[in-house]
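Q: Start with the shorter request: fold the first protein.
A: Done. Sequence, then structure:
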Amino acid sequence: MCDIRYFKSAYHCYDVAVNLMNLYQNDEMYLNDVAYNLQQCIEKTLKAFLECKGVTVPQTHSIRKLIAMSGNHGSVVVITDWIEKNQYEIETWEADTKYNFDMCLEAERVSTGLQEVRKFLDMNHMSHVRNPELTDERKARLRKHLPENLVVRDEFEWNCYYNIFRKRLENE
C-alpha cells in the first residue's frame, strides 16, 4: 500500500503557493516561490500516483518523464490539458526559480498556473471535500481494502484512498 503522506505533501505545496501568492506585492521572489511550489505539487502528485501503482520512481524533477511514466504504468492520475501543454515550462520552475536570480516570471502566468493546478487537484479529487463518487456504500467497500487498524482522519484521506483503489472497486 502506498503512503498517503505523498499526497498530503503535494497538497501542502499547493497551499504554500496560494499563501505566497496572497503575500505577493510585485516582488518577483514571491512569484518564483509560488511557481516552484506549483511545480513541486505537480511532481509530487505524479510520483504519489506512480508509487501507489508499485512503480519505483527515480529521483527526477522531470514533469515530462513522470507524465510518460504515468501513461506507461497505468497510473490513474488525470493529467489536465494545461499541464500536458505546459509540462516543459512547469519543469523549469523547479530549478530556474531557485537558482537563476535573473528569472522573472509574469504574475499573470503564475496566477494562471495557480488556477490550473487547482483544477488538476480537483480532477484528481485531492480535496478536503468528499468526492461525490465516494458514496457511503463505496466507502464501506473501500474500507475492506484498507488495513483494519488504519485510521482515516478526514475526507482528503478518503478521497486519496478512493483514487488508489477506484479501479479495483469498479471491477468488484
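Q: Next, the second protein, separately.
A: Sequence, then structure:
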Amino acid sequence: MMKGALSWEYQPPRLILRGELDRETLLSLWNQRRTLMSQVNVIDVSGLERVDSAGLAMLVHLREQVEQDGGTLALSGITDRLSTLIALYNLQDIIPVN
C-alpha cells in the first residue's frame, strides 16, 4: 500500500480500515459508504496510521448513518492519537473511547 492511501477489508459485521483516513483519501470510502455500512456494526480503526478532522467527521457520519438505519456502530482499536482528536473536538459522547 502506498503512503497516504486508505484501504479497507470488508468482513461483515466488521469493516477494517488501514492507512490514512483524511481529506485526501476518504472519497473512495465515502462513495461506497451506503453499500459497505449496510452490514457493518464495528469499524476497526487500529490499522489507521493517521486520521485528520475530515476523517473523524467521516467516522461520526458513518455512525449517524448506521443509527438512522436502526443499527449501532462501535469503533474498535482506537489509538491514543485518535482518542486525543476525539477529545479535542469534544466528541466522547458520540464516539466512546474505552
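Q: Describe the second briefly.
A: Helices lie at 27-37, 53-68, 80-88. The mean pLDDT is 93.
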